[in-house]
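Progress narrative, work stream C.
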Amino acid sequence: MTYAKSQATIEDLYHVPENGKAEIVNGMLIIKEPTGAMPSRAGFNITMSLRQMEGKLDGRAYPDNAGFIVDLPNRQSFSPDAAFYVGDDAGMKFLEGAPIFAVEVRSESDYGKSAEKEMAQKRSDYCTVTLIC
């Protein structure tokens, strides 16, 4: 992860270079690095399974890189690897509020004490704003 600038805004997410993936945590724009073949494929397969639920549940499946705007003390956005969302369609903008179900697939760099701490905090943030945890 790269920490790009402090006191980032949602508008900054719209200008992440090369259509990259980023989140705002503790007021900082955190650029997420691209993932490898296995984690990308896992996220895709989960999204496809969630897509099958669209006809059975009120909501929509979203793949990696969808942005969700949230209002937490330490986090202003999420960008999970796969998600199911029941809020209003946002058109070309980020979705307002958290998904009811979100998946984070581990990449090669998501191991070790620092990564475990970051993932535990993100899980806690998801549980703060989602219905399913």
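Work stream C, second folded protein:
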Amino acid sequence: MNNTTLRTLLVYAVTLPLAVFVGWMVAGDLTRTSFAVLAAIVFVLLLPLLLKWHYPVMIFSWGTYITIFFLPGQPALWMLMAGINFGMAILNRIISKKQTFLSAPSITASLLVLAAVVLFTAKLRGGFGLQVMGSSTYGGKGYYLIIAGIIGYFALTSQPIPVERAKFYTALFFLPGIISAVSNLIYFAGPAFYSLYLIFPVGFAGVQAGSEMAGGISRVAGFTASATAVSFYLLAVNGIRTLFVKWWRLLLLIAVMALGSLGGYRSILVLVGLVFMILFLVEGLLRSPLFPALLVVGALVFAILIPISSKLPLAMQRTLSFLPLKVDPIVRIDAQGSIAWRLEIWRTVSGDLPKYFWLGKGYALNPTDLYLADQAQLRRRTAGHESAVLVGNYHSGPLSVYVPFGIWGSVAFLAFLTVSLRALHLNYLYGSQELRTLNRFLFAFFIGRIIFFFAVFGALASDFYLFTGIVGFSIALNKGICSKPVLVPQPVQFRRDLTLRPAQAGLA
């Protein structure tokens, strides 16, 4: 028996029983345990491909919103892939004895300081308790999200992205957000397709189902996330100037935003509009002929909305409710109630701000306090925002930083934003010419995210990986932080030798 025949028999001896076992599991009812076993088998089979494509898979996972539901705590897919890439980078560093991570000392220092503040606060404020791990305290997931965001930055900067593949990786970074729309499409398809939620995220469908069961506005939240992802991709690869040159791309952007408004979130118009305006200024188009063209397009869109605004779906009306348009009274009351609810939260928290100055509150929760708050709210003996305050759902970026981590966490976070913004600006100014459009967008995108986080809506635990993802992606694209090139004086060269001639008489 030769080696080829023996190898073939061994393959069949392993794969045939495994195929029968997997088929038996799939044919039955899939519980969380059986699905975890099935996922482990698939993971082992895909391990050779994962070893080769682990970095692109991590980039892809960054915006998918997919959670691994059968693991404790249901971590996001990007967290798992960031951990795998970080571990492989460390292992490669040990084996090869070469520098693995791209150099960005200022960003690295700020992240390490922030990690130290997070760990110190967690130690003094109840530990890293997780309900799924049987801990007596809850709420520790926020710590893990921040640490995972830091690890994700180092994973992104573990290898450079070739310039010729920049557009491909940009698509991997932004477009997977379209997957969030699948969640609502499965919900529309009906219970026969609900088993697909084992693969695709269920959270966006949960928002829609909850809003419909409460008798309120049906909000297709997944469409909002998908529209945001497509809009940012269009701006990243084209810039604003090209959008106006090729008119169909501008129409595509408007159509995508209209579809995204079915989620009922005013923030989609605010965030995309904010990034659009900043990018418009960064491109230097304020004094160009495109500025009046933009005003004309905006005026036409607004003129079309005026007579039909009150006839649009309620979710669309809620998205537009902050504009001077006529909307349904139900929508107006719902939008105003949301604002009043946030103001009540901020008013309640403001009285406790001084005691969190030196040492933040942290994320640890006493389960008894949480239970009593929920019961009091159900019996209408307390305000509706008390539970949100207890769990740290402040709907405010600054409060989500200051209350859990005090002044030290706030300083560390602001330092990270400052050095990251500087790195993005340097990469935009001095990066490769082939990456200029993309670097310019990442710079404007980061500014827009900062303004949105502090002025509109933000939550440090859930948004931090977005900031580290943007700057980490830029570092990988530009192979570090670019700097102004040093001009080296070159000697003057003449085409032929110069010879001195004797001066002529009469010439001074």
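The chain is about 65% helix and 0% strand. No further action is required on this item.
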